[in-house]
TrEMBL record:
Protein name: Acetyl-coenzyme A carboxylase carboxyl transferase subunit alpha
Family: Belongs to the AccA family.
Biological classification of the source: Bacteria, Bacillati, Bacillota, Bacilli, Bacillales
Keyword Lipid biosynthesis: yes
Alphabetic keyword roster: ATP-binding, Coiled coil, Cytoplasm, Fatty acid biosynthesis, Fatty acid metabolism, Lipid biosynthesis, Lipid metabolism, Nucleotide-binding, Transferase
GO molecular function: acetyl-CoA carboxylase activity; ATP binding; carboxyl- or carbamoyltransferase activity
Pfam families: ACCA
Subcellular localization: Cytoplasm
UniProt GO cellular component terms: acetyl-CoA carboxylase complex
Species per Swiss-Prot/TrEMBL record: Jeotgalicoccus saudimassiliensis
GO biological process: fatty acid biosynthetic process; malonyl-CoA biosynthetic process
Amino acid sequence: MVFEFEKPVTELENKIKELEKYAHKNKLDLTTEISFLERKVKDKKEEVYSQLTPWQRVEIARYIKRPTSKEYIAALFDEFIEFKGDRAYSDDNAIIGGIAMFRGRPVTVIGNQRGMDTKDNIARNFGMAHPDGYRKALRLMKQAEKFNRPVICFIDTKGAYPGKAAEERGQSESIARNLVEMAGLTVPVISIVIGEGGSGGALALGVCNKLYMLENATYSVISPEGAASILFKDASLKEIAAESLKITAADLLELGVSDGTIVEPAGGAHHDKTFVFNETDKVLQDALAELVPMDGDALVDQRYDKYMAIGQFSE
């Protein structure tokens, strides 16, 4: 898939491939011409990717080829053991979690898991969790607190599942319970928005000491389409809504919601997953180095101060 805004770059890259093929077939030296086009590609990438609109970043955040929580866990952690079930109703495939080692330190890892293809998306309900998923996440967080393990969360969901069965089993209560319990955890909590952070479904893993966002991730109380439907009575005005919502990593860093932005390669994390994993690894190391020495009371106070400061302004 090529995004509309990427077409100028793709056209130049295709021309380079054609020239290389032609040169090889006819045994010609077209090094000068190819080098010229390669410089143009580099310049065009810088131009295109430095001017992305909020809606274009939403498109990148939702892209199915972006690395998922499972991929981050496999790349960053050793000896991961997945735990299943909420000990009340069922196991929810839209949230995965367990214990692992991060650079020799035991940690608890939890993440929204969307599908990597159509079949997987159906199995994981497109990353939209039922109450069972949030209760599983809370069970793992409380276990982490008991054994003094830092909690690391990866956020990537359109939102909590809004279906009838989820509401019957207490969707809103399960999210609210997570917010309350996470606010009082006496171990470090680090959350990273790796894709789309939508509504309460994202916030249920987002009450933390440190919140980081990938450069093209989004974090919002509602999708741009939903906001446009409510505010403008027209979902097609999603681009205007995305601009107004201030949902990008740069916006949320400026507003004090995010504590830092994790750089992505030009065009998005899917273009170079290893680069993104390495950048995330550095952020986690720095965050743990700051938070682990703090005692439980200090961690709770720091978390409280962080959220009380959001929304403050002066004129």
